[in-house]
Specification:
The chain has a single domain, classed as 3-methyladenine DNA Glycosylase, Chain A, CATH 3.10.300. The chain is an alpha+beta fold and 273 residues long. The protein is built from three helices and nine strands, in the order E-H-E-E-E-E-E-H-H-E-E-E. It is globular and about 40 Å long. Strands 1, 2, 3, 4, 5, 6, 7, 8 and 9 form a nine-stranded antiparallel beta sheet that branches. It binds a DNA duplex (13 and 13 nucleotides) through strand 4, strand 5, helix 2 and helix 3.
DNA sequence: CACCCGATCGTCT
DNA sequence: GACGATCGGGTGC
């Protein structure tokens, strides 16, 4: 069973009418419910313009969150300081921090005063691959000790996984970086919401930025997914409304999260005497 | 490959 | 005081 096969179903969507490929998506594109916007975002390109360079990612997987109508949404109960951006104007980025170490980014939908958003889950890096890889590796080091060890020579002797001429899904995907790219394939650069943010250099400082502004550090350009390529299924890691099929992805794309049904974590047993 | 677990902290109850 | 819209490393089959 391929990733995300659970509950999959084909989706027919309306292409972003009147928006030529490469143009920034207009704000009114986002002034609709997230579940309508979401499939239209697949194939579109997120551009991150930072001092250290440009990274562009073509979206392959997204999830819709319907605010007040959706128990799984951060905006389900009421507006808080954290979720304020979701209640603002459409076309802006809602960035949140989770698990004490990761960022995730959403695109705000519906007009101001109402909350709805699309979580960007995965993408394929189509520009700035070297920078994206550098950021991913840096984040990896930072999260877990091991500060030293810069490019331990060690050689990748051992019985490396090899995988020389495997049936590459999209050409040469799957090759590892020569130095230090231990196990980090192109496919994994922006696969998963937190990894996507790492690759793009997205953090708290970008919360609220306007994705429709050409001068913004984070922008989104129109592009089409292959016709008939969009599938949908339940959202990942969602504890409520788990059966709502508001996760959308591009069929056959390597850069899509593995499907994991929600499972409550076990709590640390209280060591009481 | 499947499953388990630890890291780590802002947010809400 | 719990618990995530997660990730990555480890273990064990």
């Amino acid at each position: 069973m391929p990733p995300g096969a659970h509950g999959r179903a084909r989706v027919v969507r309306d292409a972003p009418r009147g928006v030529g490929p490469g143009a920034l998506l207009p704000r009114d594109f986002f002034a609709r419910p997230a579940q309508e916007v979401a499939p239209g975002l697949l194939g579109c390109v997120i551009e991150s313009q930072a001092p250290d360079g440009l990274v562009a990612v073509a979206l392959t997987e997204v999830e819709a969150y319907a605010g007040a109508a959706d128990p799984a949404s951060h905006a389900y109960r009421r507006q808080t300081r954290r979720t304020a951006v979701m209640f603002g104007a459409p076309g802006h980025a809602y960035v949140y921090f989770t698990y004490g170490m990761h960022f995730c980014v959403n695109l705000v939908c519906l007009p101001e005063g109402t909350a709805s958003a699309v979580l960007l889950r995965s993408g394929a890096v189509i520009e700035g691959v070297a920078l994206a890889r550098q950021r991913r590796l840096a984040a990896r080091r930072g999260s877990r000790g091991e500060p030293g060890r810069r490019d331990a020579p060690g050689g990748q002797g051992g019985g490396g996984p090899g995988v020389p001429g495997g049936p590459g899904v999209s050409g040469g995907a799957g090759w590892r970086a020569e130095s230090g790219g231990r196990g980090l394939t192109d496919r994994d650069l922006a696969r998963g919401p937190a990894r996507l943010c790492q690759a793009l250099g997205v953090d708290r400082s970008l919360n609220g930025v306007d994705m429709c502004d050409p001068g913004s550090p984070l922008r989104i350009r129109a592009a089409a997914a292959p016709p008939g390529s969009i599938l949908r299924g339940p959202r990942v890691g969602v504890s409520s409304a788990a059966s709502v099929p508001w996760r959308f992805w591009i069929a056959g794309e390597p850069a899509v999260s593995d499907y994991r049904a929600y499972a409550p974590r076990r709590r640390k047993p209280s060591a009481r005497p």
